[in-house]
Each structure stands twice: as structure tokens, then as C-alpha cells.
Write a structure and sequence with these properties.
Structural class: mainly alpha
Distance between the termini: 47 Å
Largest sheet: none
Number of strands: 0
């Protein structure tokens, strides 16, 4: 892994754990194994590094969502279900990118609110666009009702995932998967043709 990638990874973990104000360039340099002056050769400020981390997380999220549709599902239902399951498993991992996303989408650093939320909203819109394209294909094939708009289907799908994401804080994976199964059944019943 290149030095800049290590800086981004360690910065992400420290920001996720300690917040923006609780993370210093010194802490990041120590975690990467650099002198502080060497870190500044890559990033001129903590703000610049923070925005690079946010941009990377936003881009990785869009890539992840698109990749969830590249699965072995033989039917529309299987394909969407496997995408849903990939999201549930990803949420339950509690990795630092998810912790970062959850923390800073809810509590962006003072003074950066609009810029951070714009980056995150843009990634959400790109992710939903990918989902809506899958819904449109399924509607064209006659697998999903056209009484539900792709926009409404996306809102429902991501609403389910948002609800489950909160449960990862206090339930184990078995309970989350059980809740996810129930949610999926209701979602599919509502959108199928």
C-alpha cells in the first residue's frame, strides 16, 4: 500500500474513532509511521486530508452499491435480494468507513457542514440512481409493478437499510438478519408485479 493510501486509511480510522477535533496530524503521522513534516508533504492541512477521506468514502460507497448488483441472482427477486443481503452484511461489519460515514453524516465538523453533506448526498444520489436503473430494467421485464415508481422503490429500499443500520449498534447479526428477512418480504411483496 502506498504512503498516501495508508494516510487515508489511518486518517479515516482516527477520524471515525476520535472525531475531527480529536484527531491531529501528529496522531495520523504516528499511526502511519511518518514524521509530521513528511505527512505535510502529502497533505497541507488536516482539513484537506479530511475532505480526501470523505471523498474516498463517498466514491467507495457508490462503487459498493453498483457492485452489489453484479451477483449470481437468476431472477429479479434474487438479484435484488442478494444486493440487499450484501448491504446488511456490510453494515454489520462495523468497519471504520461505516463508522466515519455514520458519524460525519450526522455530525459534520463545524464550518464544514454544507461541503461534507454535499459530498455525502451526491454519493447517496448516485447509489440510488444505480438502484433505480435496476428497478427500471425489472419493470421493463415485467417483474416489478409500474405502480411503484423507481424513486419510491429506492426510498423504501434504502429506508429499510437505514433502519437496520441503527440496529447494528445493539443487536447481534442473527437478530439483524432475521429483521432484514422480514423487511425484505414486505418490500418484495410491495414491488413485485
Amino acid at each position: 500500500m502506498h504512503t498516501k493510501e495508508r494516510i487515508l486509511m489511518e486518517g479515516m480510522e482516527l477520524f471515525a474513532t476520535h472525531g475531527y477535533n480529536g484527531t491531529s496530524m501528529t496522531k495520523i503521522a504516528d499511526r502511519v509511521g511518518l514524521k509530521k513534516s513528511s505527512l505535510y508533504a502529502h497533505y497541507s492541512s488536516k482539513e484537506e486530508l479530511f475532505f480526501d477521506v470523505t471523498t474516498k468514502i463517498a466514491a467507495d460507497y457508490v462503487h459498493f452499491v453498483k457492485s452489489t448488483f453484479e451477483n449470481n441472482g437468476q431472477t429479479t427477486e434474487e438479484k435484488l435480494y442478494l444486493s440487499f443481503q450484501a448491504h446488511v452484511k456490510d453494515m454489520a461489519n462495523h468497519d471504520s468507513s461505516i463508522e466515519f460515514y455514520n458519524r460525519f453524516s450526522s455530525y459534520p465538523p463545524t464550518g464544514f457542514e454544507s461541503r461534507i453533506l454535499e459530498l455525502l448526498r451526491d454519493s447517496e444520489e448516485q447509489a440510488r440512481k444505480a438502484f433505480k436503473e435496476e428497478i427500471k430494467k425489472a419493470q421493463k421485464a415485467g417483474d416489478i409493478t409500474d405502480e411503484v415508481s423507481p424513486e419510491d422503490a429506492a426510498r423504501a429500499f434504502y429506508g429499510l437499510l437505514d433502519g437496520l443500520s441503527y440496529e447494528t449498534s445493539y443487536y447481534n447479526m442473527d437478530v439483524i438478519e432475521n429483521h432484514g428477512e422480514s423487511m425484505w418480504k414486505v418490500f418484495w411483496r410491495g414491488v413485485k408485479a
